[in-house]
Amino acid sequence: MSNKFFDRNWWKDLAVAILATTVSIVLTFGTSKLVERNNQKKERRLTALMVMSSIESFARSIDESAEVWDRLDSIAVWLLRMPIEDVERLGEEPLKDAVNELFQAPVIRHDQTAETIFSSNIDTWKNMKNFQFVDNVGACFSQMNWIEEKINQEAVEYAENQARIFNNFSDYPGETFIEKLLRDDRSRKQLQMPNSYKAWLAYCSDNLRRMNRKNMKLIGIPEEEVLAFTDARADVAFEEGPMPSYSDFMKPHPDKESIDANLDYARQLDSLLNHN
User: In this model, does residue 270 exceed pLDDT 70?
Assistant: First the structure.
């Protein structure tokens, strides 16, 4: 009589089946964990690239602003060195373009998408697995916001100086706006400020990049990769084309025939007028 309890082949088959099931479970969970770790690593790298690219992009915008202030400084120095007698003799027209450009003070705006995602999501912080990196990036974002607020405030005050004289034209000596501007001590002092602004912005740009290089070392991503990632993002933004102008959407006013044809009360009025 056959008895499975003493059937060695049956026990062998059962052991093999249990072993196969166990190995399958281990492999499944092990593979899932491996995939999860790889995904977290990719997410961590992409997040780091995004935030460091955001910092580099802001540093570039500071560089561009510093270049504008440098040009404004050149214009201001040229005007400040001009004798008032020459300003009186030349009149307003030859100096108008220079004065108009002089008050085009640049403002800075940076994309806060990466900052918002990074700062408001605790899971992102946990996934970074590097508190020093998180802390240093936070310091970078704080500095960026402070720089933006400070230089924009200075730009507004710089531009408002023009309005101070323009809106109270008769209160200042001189015949033309540029003459009044150059005779006013407060305005002359303010026209010397672009030199300080461009130097301060150059310092801020250099300091941000220094802090960002520390980020790169902390997270283990080379500077070349961050710069390439930033260039790629800038290229995509450029390919989107220029910002549309309000005038692009303006259409000519409809002619009378079109209005008469499309408005009920216009047709009714025409009918009344034709019958009278």
Answer: no
What secondary structure, in 3-state letters, does the chain show?
A: CCCHHHCHHHHHHHHHHHHHHHHHHHHHHHHHHHHHHHHHHHHHHHHHHHHHHHHHHHHHHHHHHHHHHHHHHHHHHHHHCCCHHHHHHHCCHHHHHHHHHHCCCCCCCCCCHHHHHHHHCHHHHHHHCCHHHHHHHHHHHHHHHHHHHHHHHHHHHHHHHHHHHHCCHHHCCCCCHHHHHHHCHHHHHHCCHHHHHHHHHHHHHHHHHHHHHHHHHHHCCCHHHHHHHHHHHHHHHHHCCCCCCHHHHCCCCCCHHHHHHHCHHHHHHHHHHHHC
The sign one gets for the Cα dihedral 71, 76, 79, 80 is: negative
Per-residue pLDDT of 188-235, as tens digits, reads: 888 888 899 999 999 999 999 999 999 999 888 999 999 998 888 776
pLDDT digits (tens, 9 = 90+) for 44-61: 788 888 889 989 999 999
Q: Report the amino acid identity of residue 124.
A: T
